[in-house]
Amino acid sequence: MTTIQLFSIIFSLSFTIIVFYFIYKAKLKEAYALIWVPTNLFFLILSLWQKGLDWVSNLIGIYYPPAALFLVMFGGMLLILFQFSCVLSRRADDIKTLSQRLALLEEKMSRAKKKNE
Questions:
Q1: Which domain holds residue 23?
Q2: pTM
């Protein structure tokens, strides 16, 4: 077992524990955990299973298998960041809509108040 493989295994296990701890403390919603856990488990499997890592590295044309491990991890992180960007975009639209509705309600209340005076 190489040093980089050992580091990858320790990192994966530590990160999995952190994710489950944040779920337990309700600081991470389960919907997001469903993204982090499979990505991390795939990374852990490739860290543990040397032949699988060799197969993946040969498949993508990388001659140093630990480099393939980090490429896979980088790809997973990009997918997660893209998903978060989509969520943030949706939330920004929701905030804009709610702000507009609030402004309309405040205007209606202001007009009703003036009408009653």
A1: 3-116
A2: 0.63
